Amino acid sequence: MPLQELNSNNGADKLTHEIAERCLTEFKGKLYGVEKGCPYGAALAFIGELWRGRGTIWGFDTFEGHPQEIAELCPDTIKDKGVDSNAARCMDYWYNSPDYGTDKLKYEYIRSKLDELGLDNAILVKGLFTSETKIDFIPKLHYAMIDFDYPLSQWDGYNAVKNKIVKGGYLCLHDMIPKGHIAGNYERYQDILAEGIFDIELEDRASLLVILKKK
């Protein structure tokens, strides 16, 4: 794989790969998915290859690194040391690692690697995702992974996809458990559950991953 998978360090990649594979057999016709927060691009490459000829996966990211400006906008993060919080600094280790760094985050790098693999069904969407971001170009969703770290961004990402996910479709949320891992995320997770439109498929503390299924 020419692109790196950050979630291979905690095992979340294996769980989300399994969900993407399930979509092939559980749904008929064309598949649609999103990865919100796709640093280093390997998750997109995996699903793009898996769904080749069957579906499209969109990857939303700044492709410039973790947006520190959200640390000054997110109420939960402001209460938790702001720009010095875990939400704001959780990517620093990887950015400073010689195995990951920042050059491989860039749009041009990831796009070039996807193109080398012939994955025109893996589409990159560059920019800061907020409550104003429109995804009208996506007709529906069978799979969504949200890994924006900040509670505010997780909530915005959720609200953008919740009504597009089909019955039986999957919503994967990273860093929402355990409580206190990233201040505010567990509470936003409880808000999601309280809406009553998803069932819990899996809560895996070891990988920090929650998988929900649309009722």
Arithmetic mean pLDDT: 97
Give the overall shape. globular
Strand order in the sheet with the most strands? 3-2-1-4-5-7-6
* CATH superfamily (homologous) name of the domain at 1-65 and 102-140: Vaccinia Virus protein VP39
- CA radius of gyration is 16 Å
Q: Can you summarize the main beta sheet?
A: 7 strands, mixed
The total strand number stands at 7
**Helix- and strand-based class?**
alpha/beta
Report how far the terminal alpha carbons are from each other.
35 Å
Beta percentage is: 15-25%
CATH architectural arrangement of the domain at 1-65 and 102-140: 3-Layer(aba) Sandwich
Q: Low-confidence spans: pLDDT under 50, at least 5 residues?
A: none
Number of helices: 8
Order of helices and strands: HEHEHHHHEEHEHEE
Find the CATH topology of the domain at 1-65 and 102-140: Rossmann fold
The CATH class of the domain at 1-65 and 102-140 turns out to be: Alpha Beta
Tags for this entry?
7-stranded mixed β-sheet; 32% helix; alpha/beta; 7 strands; Rossmann fold; 215 residues
Tell me the layout of helices and strands.
Layout: H1 12-26, E1 31-36, H2 42-50, E2 55-61, H3 75-79, H4 86-89, H5 92-95, H6 107-116, E3 122-126, E4 141-146, H7 151-161, E5 165-174, H8 185-194, E6 198-204, E7 209-214
Parallel strand pairs: 1-2, 1-4, 2-3, 4-5
Antiparallel strand pairs: 5-7, 6-7
Helix pairs in contact: 1-2
